[in-house]
């Protein structure tokens, strides 16, 4: 926690000192990015039950993912934007699983929900161009809830609360004076939090760096 506070204070000090040397724009911005995906796949399970008989089962599994990340900010200089953002993500899985020890086949549903919010600062490297690049440090607080249901009965539940300090790379294209497109790529992040699972609490802190295409997000924002 001390590390997070120190990083946050350092970030605001840098932004404040840099902004004092530039003319202050008057524009506010509002935007966000949205993603949705659904996949369906067939899995095969082999069960060796009584009399040594092998039974093959074809399961149709479906996974749905959705996320939305709206934000609101203020340009405090030609290079810097400060703002607030929200983050909501959900994932739904439904299918069947075979438990060899029984052996039985059960309907499985997994639900994950993440909701959070925080602050961000975006530094645009070349704001004088229509196509520009930026780096965006963020600090968020998130709650992540995971549930698993077996034959419609809740079997497991875990709740995780964590701080997420990250820096993402991105690019934007100014369509006109009001609208622009944004592209967020990967970046680095540090997470610190606690997971509550079956009455037990587990503390964790992780560092992650990822730049693969699965982390890319296309967004849209307007100035007013």
Structure, described:
This protein is 8% helix and 73% strand. The chain contains one helix and nine strands, in the order H-E-E-E-E-E-E-E-E-E. The longest helix has 18 residues, at 2-19. The radius of gyration is 23 Å and the shape is elongated. The two termini are 36 Å apart. Mean pLDDT is 84; it is low at 49-56.
Side by side, the strands of the main sheet go 1-2-3-4-5-6-7-9
Helix content: under 10%
The tally of strands reads 9
Structural class: mainly beta
Q: What Rg is obtained from the alpha carbons, in whole angstroms?
A: 23 Å
What is the CATH topology assignment?
Porin
Mean pLDDT: 84
CATH-derived architecture = Beta Barrel
Strand percent estimate: over 45%
Low-pLDDT stretches are 49-56
How many domains comprise the coordinates?
A: 1
**Number of helices in the DSSP assignment:** 1
Termini Cα gap: 36 Å
Order of helices and strands: HEEEEEEEEE
The multimeric state of the shown protein is single chain
Quick one: biggest sheet? 8 strands, antiparallel, barrel
Shape estimate: elongated
Top-tier CATH class? Mainly Beta
């Amino acid at each position: 926690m001390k590390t997070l506070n120190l990083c946050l204070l350092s970030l605001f000090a840098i932004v404040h000192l840099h902004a004092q040397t530039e003319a202050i724009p008057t524009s506010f911005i509002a935007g966000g990015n949205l993603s949705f995906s659904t996949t369906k796949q067939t899995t095969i399970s082999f069960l060796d039950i009584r009399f040594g008989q092998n039974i093959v089962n074809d399961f149709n599994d479906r996974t749905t993912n959705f996320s939305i990340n709206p934000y609101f900010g203020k340009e405090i200089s030609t290079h810097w934007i400060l703002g607030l953002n929200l983050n909501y993500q959900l994932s739904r899985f439904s299918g069947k699983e075979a438990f060899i020890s029984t052996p039985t086949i059960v309907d499985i549903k997994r639900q994950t929900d993440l909701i959070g919010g925080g602050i961000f600062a975006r530094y645009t490297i070349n704001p004088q161009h229509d196509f520009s690049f930026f780096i965006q440090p963020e600090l968020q607080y998130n709650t992540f809830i995971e549930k698993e249901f077996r034959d419609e009965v809740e079997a497991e539940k875990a709740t995780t609360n964590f701080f997420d300090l990250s820096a993402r790379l991105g690019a934007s294209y100014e369509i006109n004076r009001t609208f622009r497109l944004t592209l967020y790529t990967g970046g680095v992040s540090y997470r610190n939090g606690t997971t509550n699972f079956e009455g037990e609490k587990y503390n964790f802190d992780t560092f992650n760096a990822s730049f693969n295409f699965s982390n890319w997000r296309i967004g849209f924002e307007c100035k007013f």
